[in-house]
From TrEMBL:
Keyword entries, A-Z: Cell inner membrane, Cell membrane, Iron, Membrane, Metal-binding, Repeat, TPR repeat, Transmembrane, Transmembrane helix
The protein, known as: Lipopolysaccharide assembly protein B
GO cellular component terms listed in the entry, alphabetical order: cytoplasmic side of plasma membrane
Residue sites binding Fe cation per the record: C362, C365, C376, C379
Membrane association type: Single-pass membrane protein
Keyword Cell wall biogenesis/degradation: no
GO molecular function terms listed in the Swiss-Prot or TrEMBL record: iron ion binding
Domain of life: Bacteria
Cellular compartments annotated: Cell inner membrane
Pfam families per UniProt: TPR_16, TPR_7, Zn_ribbon_LapB
Domain LapB rubredoxin metal binding residue range list: 360-384
Stretches assigned to the Cytoplasmic side: 23-394
Length: 394
């Protein structure tokens, strides 16, 4: 059983024990007997818990305590435990049972509705969760509760890919107050911009992307899409300017701009400009993909020896498997017949090692893969997946 779950159950058990201990002395014989039964149930549940039988412990605790104003929080906590264990259907039953009680205060009712919304969201009952959250936002008089409901509703709308609806809920207050929402909102606008591009509306897409940058000036994706718009329009100088802004926003994303950058310079027949640009990028951060691209240009102009010398110096400062693989390629070009077979075998091994390595990794959860995901498939963080240094490239 996970340590976190055990701790939560222990805290719930302590809360139940505290509640039993603070009950007023019972005078009648029947009520004294009831109190003894409750105390016995509590210790039975605690025994199950200590013996790592959480299912039986929870059932015992739920049955041991009646629902009243003193035990609402305990019932809510038990319902949340069920949900955290993947048993959201049981959590729904507990929270719905609480809502049916006429003795709930307004604040308690709001809290139970919020937890019930989380249960529905966990179960994938998005329509029911959305209706409950909309009602809570409309009826609650607690600003903190309204903000919590908004955050949960935004998360729900994002899951449904209702980007404009999520923006409508989040703007402007939630974006100012919540860093996670502020990081996500520019990507919702980028999603809308891509929809506009598919509808052949580049002017509307530009508007969306400028709005994204006004929320987060470091949104790499917005400049990436603006550069794509300029490329499609044949404005290669503008595309280059936009691509070169990306390393200023986040140097880790330098590798993704290299291929479109080279294509744009070649469209302009300006290979010297490309080399100057690559030198500047390498001076700022020596990504191996930029090093290899510059080495390829040197190889065409000066030969493989100059290219190998350049790459060797870079690898001495910043070792890289991809750089070694490229260097082996260069050695193969000038290898003597007797050495060629050995170097080719070394190249085969380095190639297999590279094929087995991911190219991108989420900085939050560690998810890795061969493609760039603007939203991590595992933890759903926006803009957290970046090229892995030393492995980036083709």
């Amino acid at each position: 059983m996970p340590d976190l779950l055990l701790l939560a159950l222990l805290l719930a058990a302590i809360a139940i024990g505290w509640w039993l201990g603070r009950r007023e002395p019972l005078r009648s014989r029947g009520r004294t007997r009831q109190h003894a039964t409750l105390s016995r149930d509590y210790f039975v549940g605690l025994n199950y818990l200590l013996n790592e039988q959480p299912d039986r412990a929870i059932e015992t605790f739920v049955q041991a305590i009646e629902v009243n104003s003193d035990t609402i929080e305990t019932h809510i906590a038990l319902g949340n435990l069920f949900r955290s264990r993947g048993e959201a259907d049981r959590a729904v039953k507990i929270h719905q049972n609480l809502l049916a009680r006429p003795t709930l205060s307004t604040g308690q009712s709001d809290q139970v509705q919020l937890e019930l919304s989380r249960d529905f969201l966990h179960l994938g009952l998005l329509d029911r969760a959305e209706r409950l959250l909309q009602q809570l936002m409309r009826d609650t008089g607690d600003d903190g509760m309204r903000q919590s409901a908004k955050r949960l509703l935004v998360d729900l709308l994002e899951r449904e890919r209702e980007w404009q609806s999520a923006l409508d809920v989040a703007l402007p207050q939630l974006i100012r107050q919540d860093e996670t929402v502020r990081r996500a909102a520019p990507h919702w606008l980028c999603e809308l911009a891509q929809q506009e591009l598919r509808s052949a509306s580049p002017s509307l897409a530009r508007k969306r992307l400028r709005q994204a940058l006004s929320i987060d000036e470091h949104c790499v994706r917005a400049n990436w899409l603006l550069a794509e718009i300029e490329r499609d329009a044949g404005n290669y100088k503008a595309e280059i300017r936009l691509l070169r802004r990306i390393p200023e926003q986040d140097r880790a994303f330098t590798p993704i701009i290299l291929e479109p950058l080279r294509a744009a310079f070649l469209k302009l027949e300006d290979e010297n400009g490309l080399e100057r640009c690559l030198h500047q990028l390498i001076q700022a951060t020596p990504h191996i993909s930029a090093v290899i691209m510059l080495a390829q240009s040197l190889e065409r102009r000066e030969g493989s020896v100059s290219a190998a010398e350049f790459v060797g110096k870079q690898l001495a400062a910043t070792p890289s498997l991809r750089g070694i693989d490229y260097l082996i390629n260069l050695y193969l070009l000038d290898a003597e017949p007797a050495q060629h077979e050995r170097i080719a075998l070394l190249k085969q091994h380095s190639g297999k090692l590279l094929e087995a390595q991911p190219r991108f990794r989420c900085q939050r959860c560690g998810f890795s893969g061969a493609q760039l995901h603007w939203q991590c498939p595992r933890c759903r963080s926006w803009g957290a997946t970046k090229p892995i240094i030393g492995l980036e490239g083709e």
